[in-house]
Amino acid sequence: MKHKQPSRSAVVEERIGKLLKDMSLEEKVGQLAQPFGWTCYERKADGSVELTESFKRRAAEGGVGSLYGTLRADPWTGVTLETGLSPEDGAKLVNEMQAHALEHGRHGIPILFGEECSHGHMAIGATVFPVPISVGSTWNPELYEEMCRAVALETRSQGGAATYSPVLDVVRDPRWGRTEECYGEDPHLTSVLGRAAVQGLQGKSGDLSADDAILATLKHFAAYGSSEGGRNSAPVHMGPRELHEIDLLPFRHAVDAGARSVMTAYNEIDGIPCTTNRHLLQDILRDEWGFDGFVITDCGALGLLTSGQNTAEDGTDSSAQAVLAGVDMEMSGEMFDRHLLAAVHEGLLSEADVDRSVRRVLEMKFDLGLFDRPFVDPKRASEVIGSEEHRKLARKVASESIVLLKNEGDILPLQRSDFLGAGVTHDASRAGKKIAVIGPNADAPYNQLGDYTSPQPAGAIATVLDGVRAALGEQPGSDTADSRVLYAPGCRIRGESREGFPAALHKAEQADTIILVLGGSSARDFGEGTIDLQTGASVVTENSWNDMECGEGIDRSTLNLAGVQLELAQEIFKLGKPVIVVYINGRPISEPWIVENAHAILEAWYPGQEGGHAIADILFGDANPSGRLTLGIPKHVGQLPVYHYKRRTRGKRYLEDDFEAQYPFGFGLSYTEFRYDNIRLDADTIHADGQTTLSIDVTNAGSRTGQEVVQLYVSDLAASVVRPEKMLKDFRKISLSPGEKKTVTFTVGREHLEFVGPDLKWCVEPGLFRLTAGPSSIEGLTAELRVNASALAAR
């Protein structure tokens, strides 16, 4: 699989050659270091913005090749709503910086502005979409591609030309704090969504110069989601077969889709840091896959080589090792700025090694159209960023991502008429029953946004309380004796304080139905000691404390609810009223007591700025839940791992419990019922290089229109190496009206049957395969396929 390289005109190639010839070594290094962009400007007390002297000096002396996070706003950058910039002002700033660099640099080379866009541009005013684990739960790559187009449009309108997404890490241990940034546990699903992200961000045409396209950066290369104990940046213990079949597969597909930038992972694999792994960055990425873009480090990764991994003696050594391995640009620029020149002068690198990386960066700038159109239209930025159209899209994505885990006695959906009175009126004097929205995440805006989120103005985020009130016609903030919707937080996410229990129980006693909103938080704050000042990741120390229990740098040893949330739930349940639990969180929650006692459970993950409305849409039946789990939820953390593609030799059960997930991969309930019938194959025997069609009938046997995710799993019943019991190989998300039947078809061929054989090459072996089509990884109808040998069986 080799990506077709873009064809550049002879004129562009000539210009690049001339630039490389005319640039000094110092100027070349300037193209490879990426300082922090938010340090390059200051906002004065009168509201004006000035470029810093250090930026001006750098532009004049060595050039500014790229800047990271110029428009980023969060506790790490220190940029707040008060000190940050509006969409229009942000675009004006980027234009000013670009103009200064072009005027004062010797060669007229534009700046490449790189921004964080994991689930929306991390800038003030940008639309905050659901996090990637939510996106994965939609099982809707077309919808995700549309979301990525919106993110690209908002980012490029302000001058951002590159983003550090999508995250293609495959999650093995959900205790890992960055689980929320990933799509889930499965390599195929991650591959499909990664391709959608690349096409959405860069445009299907691949024209990076378009004013609604940005450069996608695949991260973290590689196996970052498979770290020891689920701890961030910990070692990865993995053989080459598993590395290729699971962790590299999404990257291979994304490169094939046209991705032009890759970020190295912090971790080591079998003792080799990814940042200096030439086999990964050259032999596989470039030589085998045909990648033709540039490689950037993660922030602080080169420092880790000298202090942590200790595979380099000093900064000069680490910089040389990285470049020789295939790294082209350093995020933060700290090591390249200080040591790359010395690496050349000391003979650790040649100038030709530097030129190779500079050429790749310059090529990307030409492909992005930055040399011809370096400026943006600030008015356009103000029009498209945070638009109503994008808010509606955020609500749709959130709605499709919510997973219904339990619905005892069909308690959901709730009937509005029960709460509005017999006349279904918005007149409070004629209201019917009351509903209590209780819990630390019931009305906590930042807690439902996830990590990598900018500051939000009041009213920008719809919480669950907001959504329920709006669904019942109550105004925001209403809390009177006549209110249909009652609210109390009860407790915090973390901490042992129970002082909120009495108020929560008092509100719950007055209600007929209780919505209990529990979970986690990835909301950062400004507290000292909670932020790594080099990488921006949160840091857990003995003395640091806030409600953040998920996100980068926040790994846990358990999957239970933090603090006294379970105790609050148990007190609420003692009231004997219907309780619907809504989880808002960034990793799975394992609470057997709630599984047993809750009347209904919704997994909403971090649903973004429109999450409260989307959750209300599900609660009141305006939308039928269609989200499906993209990672298994264990009964207990001691069961880990519970991912669905465990090898057949997974061992025996534990003394205390089995190793089956509480809720398996692919699981999710609906307000209707789907029936599967009549699975068949066009041909039940094929050659290894042939294909067949599997068909299955799916009928909506219920009374509501709904969406079903039809999943195809493949089991190789006998192979030359130990294989997983089953692996997801395809899926379709379909919509069915009551009584409607559709025939879903899958074309089964090499990509469904191949694996990495004894010689570490992809192959299709002859033999018997079991194909299972159904609603989850543990249900479905089966058909058997025999594969005969073929001359084209190996590649």
UniProtKB/TrEMBL annotation:
Q: Which InterPro entries match?
A: Cellulose_Degrad_GH3, Fn3-like, GH, Glyco_hydro_3_C, Glyco_hydro_3_C_sf, Glyco_hydro_3_N, Glyco_hydro_3_N_sf, Ig-like_fold
Query: Which residues lie in coiled coils?
Result: none
Query: Superkingdom, according to UniProt?
Result: Bacteria
Q: Where is the Fibronectin type III-like domain?
A: 708-777
Q: What is this protein called?
A: Beta-glucosidase
Indicate yes or no for the key word Hydrolase.
yes
Is DNA-binding found in the keyword set?
Answer: no
Organism, scientific name? Saccharibacillus endophyticus
Which Pfam families does the record cross-reference, listed alphabetically? Fn3-like (PF14310), Glyco_hydro_3 (PF00933), Glyco_hydro_3_C (PF01915)
